[in-house]
Design a protein that fits this description.
This protein is of the alpha/beta class. Helix content is 34%, strand content 20%. Helix 2 (44-51) packs parallel to helix 3 (71-79).
Length: 218
């Protein structure tokens, strides 16, 4: 998952004083490392459903935003022969993604970077596909992050957002416990249009109704 470092709280303001959870920003602690490995297992069906709509071809350049444990990156590398990028604000996530995909990282086909979705260190129009699994909940500025993903996509490019919870109600108590901001499908679609995407398709999973997939095209 990726987000930028929060600004210091003003005097008397405790809204920014909460320490990030190990789901929001996995640490190098034992719990953080276990969380990252668990993500790769728990999110396998979610990754498959999202990638089925990504349209990744053999020559597609793909960026995974909020790469977490690196499981989605591993699947993406199997779908394309082209370069793949991955970014996360957690150093532990960056390290695990590199280790899980060591051969691609060593060859230079995979570039894994510690950073924020609000300032993607990639050229304008470079990627064909951007994926974002279970990460937009933690973006500090949703529209700014979407604008950056739109910037790095070339003509005909698409962004695929996949969330395990489709709205605040589906997230339940976990929204507060994990510091999640859970935009629903309408909010994501409207914000994608504001951020510069020309077309947006929003779908719920046919069997797991809480899952949400948004495909936004340039």
């Amino acid at each position: 998952m990726t987000r930028s470092t929060p600004r210091p709280a003003a005097a008397g303001d405790s809204s920014n004083s909460r320490a990030p959870s190990d789901f929001e920003r996995p640490s190098s602690s034992l719990i953080g490392r276990l969380t990252l490995r668990s993500m790769n297992l728990w999110h396998t069906p979610l990754h498959r459903w999202g990638l089925a709509a990504a349209g990744i071809g053999a020559d597609s350049r793909v960026l995974d935003v909020g790469c977490g444990g690196g499981g989605a990156v591993r699947r993406i590398l199997r779908l394309t022969r082209a370069e793949v990028g991955a970014i996360d604000h957690s150093p532990a996530a960056v390290e695990l993604t590199r280790r899980l995909n060591a051969a691609a990282a060593a060859s230079g086909r995979l570039r894994v970077i510690e950073g924020s979705v609000e300032a993607l260190p990639f050229r304008t129009g470079y990627f064909n596909v951007v994926t974002a699994f279970e990460t937009v909940y933690f973006w500090p500025d949703l529209e700014a992050g979407l604008r950056e993903t739109a910037r790095v996509l070339g003509p005909g490019g698409r962004l695929v957002i996949v969330n395990e919870v489709a709205d605040r109600q589906a997230a339940g108590i976990w929204a507060d416990r994990l510091g999640m901001n859970v935009p629903d499908g309408d909010t994501l679609a409207e914000t994608c249009v504001k951020a510069g995407f020309a077309r947006v398709d929003v779908r719920r999973h046919p069997r797991v109704g809480a899952w949400l997939r948004v495909v936004a095209g340039i």
